[in-house]
Amino acid sequence: MKSIVIAIDGHSSTGKSTVAKKLAKELEYKYVDTGAMYRAVTLFAMRNNWLQNGKVDESKLVKNLSSIEINFEYNPEAGTNDVILNGENVEKEIRAMEVSEHVSSVAKIDEVRKKLVEIQKQLGEEKGIVMDGRDIGSVVFPEAELKLFMTASADIRAQRRYNELKEKGEDITFEEVLKNVKHRDEVDSNRKNSPLIQSEDAIKIDNSELSQEEQFEIILNLAKEKI
Ligand code: C5P
Predict the structure, then answer these.
(1) Please, which domain of life does this record's source organism belong to (predicted)?
(2) Closest CA to 106 of 153, 163, 38
(3) What pLDDT, on the 0 to 100 scale, is given for residue 54?
(4) What is the whole-number distance in angstroms between the Cα of residue 10 and the centre of ligand 1?
């Protein structure tokens, strides 16, 4: 079996991480959720009060970037990797709605991207990896052997995310989630640095009408063709 890089990009809440995790497990590959890394930096800024009224204090965050250390640690219960921010497991905190509200503003900052992209490249040096995000096929691994671009209608994505958050006990409305999904699409797609785009050689998967199993089958078959 050949070791390859599988890049999964796409819009917010398209189930990229769910399918990426499953694929990595099936192929015995490493899995890296790059959104979690941007979320961890956002949490760090929030804890330092560098984020207020939707605005990031960019210069404070950039000045202190060297004091942010991000690692992944295997969680045997979940069978996946948790994000570790300066030695603390923040997997739960980074999924909160408040982090989702600010993360796209933080992800726009050039220095933040530079730092995280460097770590991502190192993680994928030996291949045998499934990485999901927004710029994996376009910037982090332009040479990836398999590139997927996932999308679905905003309503369907918001409904899925709303159900997830409700299950976790978040006090939130569907409208708030829909607004956030659309806002992140807008910011992620229109930023100057590494915007969310479908690379020419990426295969588009619209999963609006697909079950998780159907989608997994399609993606697994695409991967097997390359391995
Ligand atoms: O994947 P997830 O929805 O957790 O990502 C959170 C946010 O992080 C995205 O909305 C985007 O602003 C940012 N992101 C990014 N580049 C990546 C991964 C995530 O800009 N490779």
Answers:
(1) Bacteria
(2) 38
(3) 78
(4) 9
